């Protein structure tokens, strides 16, 4: 595919829209070997990724405000080309694709923006953000720049301080050989020619051309060195967690380890880092990449629904505050790092006026005690201590002084809402496809799904017929239908009868389908429904991974000892894209079929079935989820808005879960701390409040595999329990996020044991904590407690650093 030079035209359109509408106080953004500079001053910048299509415009201000409160300076987003130009030359910048509004919201909240224009985005986004129609352009060569477009860039102002071209191409460049290298040169020249007046970056690109800053992505980036010493050390993707795939486990990354990675990056001279993701959100519609779940929570500091994910959000907020307090020394001070052995090191950032220190212990098992300028410090294993004045530890990444929240789901039904939902249903019409084999396009070969369906739908029918005479040998014994399938889901029908369904797993693209069938003398209709679950988004050549019924498609029979094979691959195949119900927009109240649903004989476990119900929005303002337990696989809509694909029948593996709470010590990867074994990969689906109306709402499901809708119900998510830990001489903050603290279940000062939900008094704890907490916190939305012996009285714990542990109920 001639991917490279084709993106400019389309993207020009989209970017000129954005940049034209952002005329604001222009700032002078540049960089040197140390840091990004803004109006001439070197800066420490903490940025976080929020992808605008993964939430709603109504959620944006709150998400961005919480990012700012969490200590971020900038919000980073990709631009999702295939969302903005789903059909060639047809653009969409409405609703949650209103990029201008998103950037302006960032600006209104007083943050900077970092724009990664792609064209390739990765991001577990369908086809890496590239429109599938690109794949089908005959000789796609689109202009690389034009005057109108370039003029628009030259004068831009607004909040965008950094722009990125391409994305992690370095990881896959060798796949493309010289063409890849040339592409990187071309991208760089293109970007530079835009003359937008802000620095350009290329991440994971060791051979980045001189005009580009190459940056690091990964779990840890402390050892990264930019290829050009005159560019700052920047970390564009600091993975706060990980994504989830259908059939996969829930990955978690501890707050301690994310903080460790960030603090270490700054210890080793970093000055810009971006959390990927700060808010992950939801893959609405068909935006998820191959086998990626609808939830894109990512275990990010803001959860899928926009709630603070604690303690991660708060622990990082404290880190940002302390780093910010050292901005001058970190960016202007002379850096002296001393390696003390066993992975322990001290770094001093010294200016003439003052010094700051960061001590690191990357040893995953041994705590370290060091003496520095006459004082003794203990640095726990796998942690970093920060001393803004080189004397007193203000922050240690392993000591979490922030509350943990446990969220609960509750049913908050409107008053007159019945106990269970009333359903109506319709079958998906399949006579033309399953019985007649009648499609819209005919070819004497098996077409690749991208080519045949152009990503207009997940669904593509492949249909053919076979004429058999009475004495055809294939009719003399058992028969099977055998199909080589590439990826995704296959449902096979012979003469209108379902003979079987099969599907691939995440990142496994090929399988062979073989099921017994019955053929009859005369005409037999073979109908295959191929369903994609998003296209791949990553890896060299991901754009060419085949999809659909690759073939061969064979009828296999037994005649005596002989195996008889009829290969249907070169037959005349008829193709039909999509489903009748999708074309008729059964999910929309405006559909002309809106009234033609049946309430009689509600089917259970019936494939290819549409279900509809009405419901009242749950009371309150908390985020809403719908529990789709009991359903198979399909797509869901609320008031005509897609809430994404669902697949609760796909269970996570029984084995492989982390047995205990995750140990933050030691190098993390996405397989280290995983949970949810044996449970539905995703059971609850986000219904943004803005999709709901006050009176009646409609939920429509298209059930592909067969399921039972009678368990479906709506719930709200709120903070249930909060736990907090704070060490001596710190402040403990408790907050219920919008409701009062109703009770203190546990409080102890000294050496309490256990973790949230199972705290226990230690051997030397004082006796005053519970009553103090009850007095100062119950009935309040938040409270703040000084943790000290002065407040709680002395303990028998001796010299150790004491802590206060609290569990409260919201
Ligand atoms: C890329 O540009 C560099 C420097 O401008 C040049 O040395 C190199 O030959 C170019 N590579 C390709 C493949 O065009
Ligand atoms: C960690 O510390 C132990 C004991 O001090 C030492 O034996 C080991 O080599 C250290 N590991 C690393 C990676 O520094
Ligand atoms: C920083 O390093 C420079 C060059 O080595 C030296 O001249 C200067 O005195 C140093 N400043 C401090 C505060 O150490
Ligand atoms: C720091 O002090 C050194 C030596 O006293 C002096 O040469 C240098 O100009 C000072 N630097 C700054 C930034 O004040
Ligand atoms: C045909 O299949 C049936 C069911 O699988 C099996 O019992 C039978 O032995 C098979 N017949 C032959 C001729 O293989
Ligand atoms: C079909 O799949 C089988 C099993 O993986 C494989 O042996 C065969 O080569 C495949 N055929 C084609 C044409 O890819
Ligand atoms: C649904 O139907 C399929 C195929 O008919 C069957 O294998 C499955 O056990 C059924 N599931 C339930 C929950 O009844
Ligand atoms: C912990 O100790 C306090 C004071 O001695 C006591 O009131 C409380 O019940 C104990 N809590 C638990 C969970 O044992
Ligand atoms: C806490 O502060 C008190 C009073 O300033 C001091 O005596 C004590 O050593 C401090 N404890 C710790 C663990 O820093
Ligand atoms: C190439 C790649 O993996 N890019 C990604 C970095 O990590 C996350 C994974 O969640 C995103 O997909 C990035 O775009």
From TrEMBL:
GO terms under biological process: carbohydrate metabolic process
Signal peptide: 1-26
Gene3D superfamilies in alphabetical order: 2.60.120.740, Galactose-binding domain-like, Glycosidases
Gene Ontology terms, MF aspect: beta-galactosidase activity; carbohydrate binding
Keyword flag Hydrolase: yes
Keyword Signal part of the UniProt annotation: yes
Name of the protein in question: Beta-galactosidase
Organism: Rosa chinensis
């Amino acid at each position: 595919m001639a991917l490279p030079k084709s993106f400019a035209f389309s993207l020009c359109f989209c970017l000129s829209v954005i940049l034209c509408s952002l005329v604001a106080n222009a700032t002078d953004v540049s960089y040197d070997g140390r840091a990004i500079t803004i109006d001439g001053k070197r800066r420490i910048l903490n940025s976080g990724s929020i992808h605008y299509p993964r939430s709603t415009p109504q959620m944006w201000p709150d998400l961005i405000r919480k990012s700012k409160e969490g200590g971020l300076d900038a919000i980073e987003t990709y631009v999702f080309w295939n969302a903005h130009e789903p059909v060639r030359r047809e653009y969409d910048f409405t609703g949650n694709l209103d990029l201008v509004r998103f950037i302006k919201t960032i600006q209104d909240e007083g943050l900077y923006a970092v724009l990664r224009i792609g064209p390739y985005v990765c991001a577990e986004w369908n086809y890496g953000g590239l429109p599938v129609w690109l794949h089908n352009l005959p000789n796609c060569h689109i202009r690389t720049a034009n005057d109108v477009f370039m003029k628009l860039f030259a004068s831009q102002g607004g909040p965008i301080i950094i722009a990125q071209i391409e994305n992690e191409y370095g990881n896959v460049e060798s796949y493309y050989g010289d063409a890849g290298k040339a592409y990187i040169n071309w991208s760089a020249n293109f970007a530079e020619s835009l003359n937008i007046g802000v620095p350009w970056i290329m991440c994971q690109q060791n051979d980045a051309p001189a005009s580009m800053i190459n940056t690091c992505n990964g779990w840890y980036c402390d050892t990264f060195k930019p290829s050009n010493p005159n560019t700052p050390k920047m970390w564009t993707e600091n993975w706060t967690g990980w994504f989830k795939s259908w059939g996969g486990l829930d990955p978690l990354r501890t707050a301690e380890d994310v903080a460790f990675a960030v603090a270490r990056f700054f210890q080793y001279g970093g000055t810009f880092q971006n959390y990927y993701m700060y808010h992950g959100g939801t893959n609405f519609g068909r935006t998820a990449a191959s086998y990626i779940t609808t939830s894109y929570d990512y275990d990010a500091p803001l959860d899928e629904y926009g709630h603070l994910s604690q303690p991660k959000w708060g622990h990082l907020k404290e880190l940002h505050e302390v780093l910010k307090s050292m901005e001058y020394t970190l960016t202007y001070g002379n850096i002296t790092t001393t390696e003390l052995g066993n992975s322990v090191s001290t770094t001093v950032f010294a200016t003439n006026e003052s010094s700051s220190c960061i001590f690191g212990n990357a040893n995953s098992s041994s705590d370290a005690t060091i003496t520095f300028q006459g004082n003794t410090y203990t640095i726990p294993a796998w942690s970093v201590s920060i001393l803004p004045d080189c004397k007193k530890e203000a922050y240690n990444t392993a000591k979490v002084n922030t509350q943990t929240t446990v969220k609960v789901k509750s049913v908050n039904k409107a008053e007159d809402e019945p106990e269970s939902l009333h359903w109506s249903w319709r079958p998906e019409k399949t006579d033309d496809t399953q019985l007649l084999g009648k499609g819209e396009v005919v070819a004497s070969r098996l077409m690749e799904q991208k080519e045949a369906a152009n990503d207009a739908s997940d669904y593509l029918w492949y249909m053919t017929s076979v004429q058999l005479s009475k004495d055809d040998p294939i009719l003399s014994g058992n028969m099977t239908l055998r199909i080589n399938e590439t990826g995704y889901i296959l449902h096979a029908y012979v003469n209108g009868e379902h003979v079987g369904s099969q599907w691939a797993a995440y990142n496994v693209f090929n399988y062979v389908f073989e099921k017994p069938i019955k053929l009859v003398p005369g005409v037999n209709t073979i109908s295959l429904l191929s369903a994609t679950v998003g296209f791949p988004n990553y890896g060299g050549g991901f754009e060419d991974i085949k999809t659909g019924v690759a073939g061969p498609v064979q009828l296999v029979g037994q005649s005596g000892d002989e195996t008889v094979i009829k290969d249907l691959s070169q037959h005349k195949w008829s193709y039909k894209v999509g489903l009748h119900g999708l074309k008729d927009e059964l999910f929309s109240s405006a559909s002309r079929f809106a009234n033609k649903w049946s309430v009689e004989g509600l089917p259970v476990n019936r494939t290819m079935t549409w279900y509809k119900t009405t419901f009242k929005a749950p009371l309150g303002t908390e985020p809403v989820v719908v529990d789709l337990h009991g359903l198979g696989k399909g797509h869901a809509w609320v008031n005509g808005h897609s809430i994404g694909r669902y697949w609760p029948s796909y269970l996570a593996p029984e084995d492989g879960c982390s047995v205990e709470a995750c140990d933050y010590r030691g190098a993390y990867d996405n397989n280290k701390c995983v949970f949810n074994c044996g449970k539905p990969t995703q059971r609850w689906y986000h219904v943004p409040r803005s999709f709901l109306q006050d009176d009646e709402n409609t939920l429509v499901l298209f059930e592909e595999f067969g399921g039972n809708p009678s368990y479906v119900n709506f719930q709200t998510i709120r903070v249930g329990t909060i736990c907090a830990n704070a060490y001596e001489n710190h402040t403990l903050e408790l907050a219920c996020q919008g409701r009062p603290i109703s009770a203190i279940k546990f409080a102890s000062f000294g050496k309490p044991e256990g973790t949230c939900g199972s705290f226990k008094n230690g051997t030397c704890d004082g006796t005053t904590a519970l009553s103090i907490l009850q007095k100062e916190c119950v009935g309040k939305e938040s409270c703040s407690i000084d943790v000290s012996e002065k407040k709680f009285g002395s303990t028998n714990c001796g010299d150790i650093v004491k802590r206060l542990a609290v569990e409260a109920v919201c």
